[in-house]
Structures are given as structure tokens and as C-alpha cells.
Write a structure and sequence with these properties.
Blueprint lengths: L1 H10 L5 E5 L6 H17 L3 E5 L6 H8 L7 E5 L1 H11 L10 E16 L8 H10 L5 E4 L5 H13 L4 E4 L3 H9 L5 E5 H9 L4 E5 L25 E9 L4 H16 L1 H8 L3 E3 L4 H22 L5
Parallel strand pairs: 1-2, 1-3, 5-6, 5-7
Antiparallel strand pairs: 3-9, 4-7, 4-8, 4-9, 4-10
């Protein structure tokens, strides 16, 4: 078996690779996947095709991956919402994140940014908290879907700030931001890659970022941690997983190639401009990290009493 696997890896890849995303185009996952797919295409000599499969909080995309042949030609860019949150949030999902998937490499980490519609009479996090307390259940917040980082980040905010704001889930970050810009919802906590361009375009107002320290991509925006919510930290990550029975040397080769792409200065610049910090680790390290994230986020979901909307 090992010799056969070695032979497979020696000729891999010999055709295009499909990179599944659980979200719509235009979101943080898309901003992460595009430069990495381009870099992998150049390095591997075969096209890496980004395939958007939004829906069911990422469960649809994960089910497609779980049922794909373990041959290295289908990979997925995942978030904690898909592998670490959905199994607890939904109770029953068509995949097991430990049994069905193997980690390849983490790709990026990113702070989220709290944005509001310009018509909302708030300019700071404290202003928003005061307004939300004065109007319980009257403000609404968009997310990239149930169990997404934007959903969990806002639930943590609601709990720490002791406010009641109504959840409006979308099939991805981009449609949520579009509705926020249109004034259909009032606020959103979303990845920097989507939130910052909207802020820079004057379409929304930024109140804070979700990391403990200010983001190098937007050093003028204060953190929620320094804006009246000490200790607030909800940092997202995105990384690559593959069907569990994929030969290890193919997994190792893919991991090494992804990490090499993440070291290319042009790729790093493209990612960092959007508030995405290049990461990269070994399959073993990423597997261990995913296991720790499952433990962490299942506790958050249970303690907050979250249910799919």
C-alpha cells in the first residue's frame, strides 16, 4: 500500500484540482482561496478550480467533500464554523469532522470588524451598546450564516454587552454586507477582507475590530477589547481539509505546496492588504488544532444555547 501511495504522489497531480468553498463569492473565504489557488496552479502545473457551494451553514460543502474520492483532487477551504461549530449547532450533520476529514494546512487567520449602517446614530462600540439596550429586539445583525464566525462573534458580543439584537443569517458574507449597505440590517461583525473595503468606500461605518490588539490592516480602528468589552477576542481562521483516506504523501505534498504559496511575497501582500494573516502548518499540527477548536466552540454553542434559525 505504501509503495502504491508513493507512486501516486510521484505523479500527482495529473489533472485539475477542485477547491470547494462553503460560501458565496466575494467573502473572506473567496479572498483567501483565489490567490492560493492561483499560486498552486502555477506551482503544480494543473489548474486549481474554486468551486462555491454555499448553503446549510457549510454542511452542504462538507458533505460533498466527505463523499469525494480520497485521491487528492478535491480539497476544501474550511472555517471553524463548518468543522467545529456545525456538528454541535445542528445536532446531526452528514459528516464527522474527525472521521471523514484530514487536515492539510491552516491558511490564514483574521480579525473580524464590527460595521454599522451610516444612518445608525452610533460612532463607538459604547454608543451601539447603549442604543441596543434602549431598543431591545429592535436592531438586527447580518451574518454569513448559522454557525459562521460572524454569527458566533456577534453572539459573544451580545452576551458580553448584555444586549438583545435579532439575527438575520445569509448564505455568505457578501450578501450580508450588501443588505447592510442597503440599510436592511443595522450591523455586522465580519471578516476584514469583506468589511474593510465597505468601510473604505464609505458605505458602512467601522466601530471596532475583534482581535485583542489592533489590526495592522486598519491600525486606526480600535479593538472591542479597548472599547468597553475587556477580553473580547473572536479571531477567525481558514484552512484546508481533504477526505480522510487520502494517501499521506499526497496530503504532505499538498500541505508543503500550500505553505510554499503562503511564503510568496506577492501572495502575502494580497492577503495582508485585506486583513488576512498568512498562517500555514503541517497536517499533524492542523489536525490537532481542529480538534482543539471543536472542543472550544462546542462549549460556546452549548453555553450560549444557540440553535439554527
Amino acid at each position: 500500500m505504501h509503495a502504491a501511495a508513493q507512486g501516486t504522489a510521484a505523479t500527482y497531480p495529473s489533472k485539475p484540482i477542485r477547491m470547494i468553498l462553503a460560501f458565496t463569492p466575494g467573502g473572506p473565504a473567496d479572498a483567501t482561496a483565489r490567490p492560493i489557488a492561483q499560486g498552486l496552479t502555477e506551482r503544480l502545473g494543473h489548474q486549481v478550480i474554486v468551486d462555491h457551494r454555499p448553503g446549510a451553514g457549510g454542511n452542504l460543502a462538507a458533505e460533498i467533500l466527505a463523499k469525494s474520492p480520497p485521491d487528492g483532487y478535491t480539497i476544501m477551504l474550511t472555517t471553524p464554523g463548518v468543522v467545529a461549530v456545525s456538528p454541535t449547532l445542528y445536532g446531526k450533520v452528514p459528516f464527522d469532522p474527525i472521521r471523514d476529514f484530514s487536515g492539510v494546512s491552516n491558511a490564514v487567520t483574521t480579525a473580524n470588524i464590527m460595521i454599522v449602517h451610516p444612518s445608525l446614530p452610533v460612532h463607538t462600540v459604547k454608543d451601539l451598546i447603549a442604543l441596543a439596550r434602549a431598543r431591545p429586539g429592535q436592531l438586527s445583525y447580518a451574518t454569513a450564516g448559522n454557525g459562521s464566525a460572524s454569527h458566533l462573534g456577534t453572539e459573544v458580543f451580545k452576551a458580553m454587552a448584555k444586549v438583545d439584537i435579532v439575527h438575520v443569517p445569509y448564505k455568505g458574507a457578501a450578501p450580508g454586507v450588501t443588505d447592510l449597505m442597503g440599510g436592511h440590517v443595522q450591523m455586522m461583525i465580519i471578516g476584514m477582507a469583506v468589511g474593510l473595503p465597505a468601510v473604505r468606500g464609505g458605505k458602512v461605518r467601522a466601530l471596532g475590530v475583534s482581535s485583542l490588539t489592533r489590526s495592522p490592516a486598519a491600525p486606526d480602528i480600535p479593538t472591542l477589547n479597548e472599547s468597553g468589552l475587556p477580553g473580547f477576542e473572536v479571531v477567525n481562521w481558514m484552512g484546508y481539509i481533504i477526505p480522510a483516506k487520502t494517501p499521506r504523501d499526497i496530503v504532505n505534498k499538498l500541505s508543503a505546496e500550500i505553505r510554499a504559496v503562503l511564503q510568496v511575497s506577492e501572495t502575502r501582500e494580497r492577503l495582508m492588504k485585506q486583513g488576512l494573516e498568512p498562517a500555514g502548518n503541517t497536517p499533524e499540527e492542523f489536525d490537532a488544532f481542529i480538534r482543539s477548536e471543536i472542543v472550544k466552540w462546542s462549549k460556546v454553542v452549548k453555553q450560549a444555547g444557540l440553535k439554527p434559525d
